[in-house]
Amino acid sequence: MPIPERLNPMFASSLPVAAAPPDPMEQARRRLIVALDVPNAAAAIKMVNQLEPSCRWFKVGLELFVAAGPAVIEPLVARGHSIFLDLKFNDIPNTVAGAVRSAASLGVRMMTIHASGGPAMLAAASEALEGMPSPPLLLAVTVLTSMDQAQVNVVGLNRSPAEQVELLARMGLGVGIRGFVCSPHEVSSLRTITGPEGVLVIPGIRPAGGESGDQKRIATPAEALRLGASYLVVGRPITQAADPLDAAEAILKEMAEAIQNQE
Fold first, then answer.
1. What is the pLDDT of residues 159-209, one digit of tens each?
2. What is the sign of the dihedral through the CA atoms of 146, 59, 211 and 28?
3. Distance in angstroms between the alpha carbons of the first and the last residue of the chain
4. Would you state the pLDDT for residue 211?
């Protein structure tokens, strides 16, 4: 499934000379995804109200979706925000294909499935979006950022997390998937594998000096961008800050400086 140009952060660099790319801070706003890992719709709307002066993208994951259902997405889309639906579908191919079609109807712009579901499941999910107008980008989740070597071993995998990420990414590419979720530790190798057209969405982002929480494979925003990340997903460092907007703006500033240094 090709990457829609409107979703690829690399698109700005391919604009004609007459259309200058956005300034680094605006590029940062287009590449930061705030995770709305909150317990209900009211908390989500309150957080969006605080952050929308600076933030464009919001992630709806399992906690919020289970509590509030699909209805929580509609007002966010209506307000012009881009939604990343992170439910990590993983089931038999037919079931996942149906779930992908249903999720696409909500107006989200990206959604996740687990790469570990196998090539038949990934292919079915991709095929479910064919023919849809403005379909969301399908992202294959490789290895969770909470899993270090010990966690990988205990589930029976005799590979390093990096090796498992690469195996799953190559499998996804083989059936037409061009978007992936991985930790900052694997983004450089995946960028080499996918090339510039791949969309790499990176959680496990922590500002310098921030608490790691239950994340094992982490990096700062600047490090992740330097390594080749397309989008950064940040949750608790923003949503649990004393002032979420100030926290988001500090991360955006760090991202903008990193983007400017790359130009």
1. 888 999 999 999 999 999 999 999 899 999 999 999 999 999 999 898 865
2. positive
3. 29
4. 60
Q: Would you list the domain boundaries of the chain?
A: 24-262
What's the predicted TM-score (pTM) here?
0.89
Return the biggest CA–CA distance within the chain.
55
Angle between helices 187-194 and 161-174 (to 10 degrees): 20
CATH of domain 24-262: 3.20.20.70
Provide, rounded to the nearest whole percent, the portion of the chain with pLDDT above 70.
Answer: 88
Active-site residue 253, yes or no?
no
Torsion angle, alpha carbons of 115, 121, 123, 125, to 10: -90
Which residues on adjacent β-strands are paired with residue 83? Answer: 58
Segment among 7-16, 73-82, 143-152, 217-226 with least mean pLDDT:
7-16
Please identify which of the residues 46, 59, 88, 216 carries the catalytic annotation: 88
Spell out where 62-136 has E strands: 82-89, 110-114
Bridge partners, residue 61, by sequence: 86
Question: pLDDT (tens digit, 9 = 90+) per residue, 21-60?
Answer: 689 999 999 999 999 999 999 999 999 999 999 999 999 9
* CB neighbours of residue 184 within 10 Å: 27
Return the bridge partners of 139, or none: 112, 179
What the block records as the tokens of 36 is: 């709305």
DSSP H/E element including 24: helix 24-31
> Do 136 and 103 contact (CB within 8 A), yes or no?
yes
Q: Which of 185, 109, 178 is nearest to 144 (CA)?
A: 185
| Distance (Å, whole) CA 44 – CA 35 | 10
- List % helix, strand, coil for the chain (3-state, nearest 5): 50, 15, 35
* Segments in 129-186 forming alpha helices (H): 149-154, 161-174
